[in-house]
Design a protein that fits this description.
single chain; mainly alpha; Four Helix Bundle (Hemerythrin (Met), subunit A); disordered N terminus; binds zinc ion
Length: 228
């Protein structure tokens, strides 16, 4: 089945990332990968808690990271990106990251400040930003540049993704400098807050047309009353 048949892309739209398919199937291969890496992370985290083994916790973190890259890559390469898959991915990420971070903090209380700041940012600010793509006819946040280039660049470009989710964790694990990790988490929170404010000013389309560009255009320039 071709990409446009699968997603029912609006005729003539031509943008990759736009979708008219709002009701979708759950059992795509990328979604199976998402479920597998999520269950794997939860099981490894549980084993780490029971055994008190830091290596198992590291394995849980790697299972999440590698699996998160793999499901997204598989979805893009096989043209099986879906809105349900994007939402599943966002929710699975929050569960995995919360479990790993909270488990880590119980044995490393010194990390409470960067961990708390990071979780607030990731679970509340970043989650609501990431789910906002559903206000437009978008397949996922990876195509948010069709609506707003700045919010996209700050949050979902490859560099932004790496810094937003990985940097704080790496600074804690590699340097142990909690003040630096806290500062970094606060800086990311600042970027998220700015993005939220910018997002709040974006006009939201009343109906989804099947093309995110048309959605953004119709919301920005609502139909004017016919002139006499
Ligand atoms: Zn389009």
């Amino acid at each position: 089945m071709g990409y446009s048949q699968l997603h029912g892309v609006a005729a003539g739209c031509g943008h990759r990332g736009c979708t008219a398919a709002l009701a979708e199937i759950w059992w795509t291969a990328p979604n199976v990968v998402t479920w597998t890496r999520t269950v794997g992370t939860v099981v490894l985290c549980g084993a780490a808690i029971v055994a008190g083994d830091q290596l198992l916790l590291l394995a849980a973190l790697l299972c999440y990271w590698v699996g998160d890259i793999a499901d997204g890559l598989l979805a893009r390469l096989s043209n099986r990106e879906t809105r349900t898959g994007a939402v599943l991915d966002v929710l699975a990420d929050r569960l995995c990251v919360c479990l790993v971070v909270v488990t880590y903090v119980t044995s490393h209380p010194a990390a409470i400040l960067p961990a708390g700041t990071f979780l607030l940012q990731f679970v509340v600010l970043d989650a609501s930003l990431t789910l906002a793509f559903r206000n437009w006819s978008l397949l996922s946040p990876n195509y948010f540049f069709l609506v707003d280039a700045t919010v996209f660049r700050l949050n979902w470009s490859p560099v932004a993704k790496a810094i937003n989710t990985g940097a704080v964790v790496l600074v804690v694990l590699l340097t142990g400098a909690m003040w630096l990790a806290t500062l970094l988490a606060l800086a990311v929170s600042g970027v998220k807050t700015y993005s939220m404010a910018r997002l709040a000013r974006l006009p939201v389309p009343a109906t989804l047309s099947g093309c995110a560009v048309l959605d953004a255009h119709s919301a920005a320039a609502p139909a004017r009353a016919p002139q006499a």
